[in-house]
Amino acid sequence: MRAVIQRVKAAKVMVLDELVSSVGPGLCVLVGIKTSDTITDVEYLVRKILALRLFEDEGKRWQKSVKDLQLEILCVSQFTLYHRLKGNKPDFSAAMKGEDANQLYNLFLDRLRQSYDDSKIKDGKFGAYMQVHIENDGPVTIELESPLPKHIEECVDK
């Protein structure tokens, strides 16, 4: 599972010129799900996103998390995070498809809400053509990927 996390002053998602969700200061998280992702990947990303120290405290950088400061999080599903290029054309075969991806994405949102504050977690519209407006703060952008399972990691290391 992959996330592109941006510290924002504000962010919003529009679908067909209608506002779906918006947040003030906090994070905008673009979430990609690959075919092999499981609940373990969800739990890893939720834990990391809520603990990442991307905010200042008394003029010192990288001291506080979104949870420490009780800020909002806007999550947007984005299958294009799992692409590879075939020549100049992107191929998304590594991304989890349709209903399976939707279920895991909803589990991700549920776990974020359970681990934080339900009212502070917003999201776009899964599978829709969205316009995402992000007012990046810094800019600060962090990529995060759940680790490979140990048995796969050992095969890759050899």
Task: Write a structural description.
Mean pLDDT is 94; it is low at 151-158. 25% of the residues lie in helices and 43% in strands. The protein has 3 helices and 10 strands. Strand 1 and strand 2 (18-23) form a beta hairpin. Strands 1, 2, 3, 6, 9 and 10 form a 6-stranded mixed β-sheet that branches. A two-stranded antiparallel sheet has the order 4-5. Helix 1 crosses helix 2. The two termini are 23 Å apart. The protein is of the alpha+beta class and 158 residues long.
Distinct helical segment count: 3
Secondary structure: helix percent: 10-25%
Oligomeric state of the chains present here: single chain
Order of helices and strands: EEEHEEEEEHEEH
State the main characteristics.
single chain, 158 residues, alpha+beta, 6-stranded mixed beta sheet, two-stranded antiparallel ribbon, 43% strand, globular, disordered C terminus
Outline of this structure?
By secondary structure, this protein is α+β, with helices and mostly antiparallel strands.
Question: SSE layout and pairings?
Answer:
Elements: E1 2-15, E2 18-23, E3 26-32, H1 39-51, E4 53-57, E5 60-65, E6 72-77, E7 84-86, E8 89-91, H2 98-115, E9 121-123, E10 131-145, H3 150-157
Parallel strand pairs: 3-6, 6-9
Antiparallel strand pairs: 1-2, 1-3, 1-10, 4-5, 7-8
Helix pairs in contact: 1-2
